[in-house]
Amino acid sequence: MYSVLIIDDEEPLREAIRILGDWEGLGVTEVLEAADGQAGLQMLEAHKIDLVMVDMKMPEFSGTEFLQRVEEVYPELMTIVISGYNDFEYTRQAIRSKVVDYLLKPVNRQDLNQALRKAVDILEAKRQSESDFITKNMTLNMSIPKLKEKMYLSIIDRSFKKQTNEAFLPLIGADETDNYFGAVVLRILNADQVRRTRFNGDTELLHFAVANVVSELAARDFSCFSFPNPKQEREMIAVYTRPGGFNEDSAFRAELLVKKLAATLSDLFHIRVAAGIGRSSRDILGIADSYEAAKAGLQGLDLLKPGTVLVAGPDGPDEPGSAAREVQPLASRISLIRNALEGGHQNQASGVLGDFLRKLKGGGRFTFSDADRVMQEFILLMNDAALELGAAPGLLPGDSGTGRDFPGLDYEDFESFGDLLHRLLDHYSAVIRRSAPVNKPFDITDIKAYIDDYYYEDIKISVFTEKYYLSREYLMKLFKQEYGFGIHEYVQKVRMDKATELLGNPELKIQEISEMLGYKDKNYFSKAFRNYFGRSPSEYRTAGQR
Q: What are the 4-aspartylphosphate sites (modified residues) in this protein (predicted)?
């Protein structure tokens, strides 16, 4: 009935798929093989193929190129992607293509046959004229994962109707009466940093990596499908499904999964997460209540009591008072900060903010919910103040998520939250100074502060000469008189000081540290480090561990 083509340059993997596949039970009468993408295209021309299984990482003609070609010539062809944990950059095209499923190496029997069954079910539905509404309701660019994501989101926002979506219920296990369903909410605490250093700035790739790890780790106890929350940039939602058993057991296993997930994401990608877990129920619509409970539990975690893994269980945080509370008023402080910045007194503004943060910390409890409210209020009020003082719209963090020249809004505990507010203050201070450079005195500390914050960028002196309308020679002389270093020397010093700090973390590779410091070439970083300290980064790290 159906014909399958396996494309992989490794013969043992092709043979393993042949052995593990339940071809007869799936109604597959022909299994063909190709050793690379080019040969696979030739097979497609010569045979009628219903489903292709393709490895993404192949020499000569990769899986990415193959999928791009298939989109052009065979837009209706069904595909299953095969990849490894560290091959996410090669599967960028797979995310955008109509792949039915993703299989991680090494391929096991259960995952393989589940993916094949999913593909065969879709093929059968397409062949049945009375069931063609499935294809009519799936746009050309909507894969099965995207359809599931849309269904779960509609359940969470309580717009899902069982009657009108009855045919799709098997996709999410809602046709089984003994299944338990629950939700987990993950907050990626260092999203901006890890996106830049590990995923080349690609948010979609970051989400794909997390989703694959969630699916792989959950496979032993229950199925788990995760996706980014389109309304919250740093949030991912995982819906878990478990057949039979007791509700309490499902919640307990979900909590174990989250803790293991946090450790695995940290080990593989240096991704740090906090999580909330909602109670499960037999009703698929109960996912909405489970999500809201998980979100409330996550938002109620106390930033003053950080741990290696921040997890709120199905009953929420253990500490009392997790509901929304009144925090220190900010509006009156903003007027003091605004007046200080208007007068060019950066240190005074920092002092006002520092006093505010000390009072927050003295409250004894400060949650993610509190922090989000304070940060949003701070950005809103500082935006208004900056605009009143002549700042140009479009340069402020609140206007476009993170702003054009602001590195990000990550925080994971109270200390990093305080650092974030101080960086936001520095940002607004610089924006306000740029808005009226003629009327305000030049302050050489501005250049030092910029270097301290953006040492990882390609800093050119021309940036400062154009900004302050001063000559290169004058700026360099003034900076050296004030700090005892030339501007380029100080950039090097900040980078090297940061390098010694990062080398103290054994989990970071030299290449990763090089990229975090702004060096595009690991060898150039090593040479610069040796010239500065008289030893290589590896030698420095080894000496520090003795």
A: 55
What is the C-alpha separation between 75 and 534, in angstroms, rounded? Answer: 59
Q: What is the SS3 assignment for 63?
A: helix
Q: Which residues make Cβ contacts (< 8 Å) with residue 337, sequence separation at least 6?
A: 349, 352, 353, 382, 385, 425
Q: What CA–CA distance (Å, rounded) separates 36 from 60?
A: 8
Both ends of the chain: CA-CA distance in Å? Answer: 66
- What secondary structure does DSSP assign to 360-421, as a single string? HHTTS--BHHHHHHHHHHHHHHHHHHHHHTTPPTTSSTTTSSS-TT-------SHHHHHHHH
Give the other-Cβ count within 10 Å of 184's Cβ. Answer: 29
Average pLDDT over residues 431-453: 75
Is-above-0.85 flag for pTM? Answer: no
pLDDT in tens, 79-129: 998 887 556 555 555 565 667 888 888 888 998 999 999 899 888 887 775
Q: How confident is the model at residue 246 (pLDDT cuts 50, 70, 90)?
A: low
H helical segments located in 168-239:
191-198, 203-218
Q: How far apart are CA 157 and CA 54, in angstroms?
A: 36
Who contacts 168 (Cβ-Cβ below 8 Å, separation ≥6)? 134, 147, 151
CATH code (residue 527): 1.10.10.60
The number of distinct structural domains making up the chain is 4
DSSP string, 34-54: ESSHHHHHHHHHHS--SEEEE
Residues 256 and 111 in one domain: no
What is the average pLDDT value for the chain, to the nearest integer?
83
Q: Which domain holds residue 402?
A: 331-441
Contacting residues for 470 by C-beta, under 8 A, at least 6 apart: 442, 464
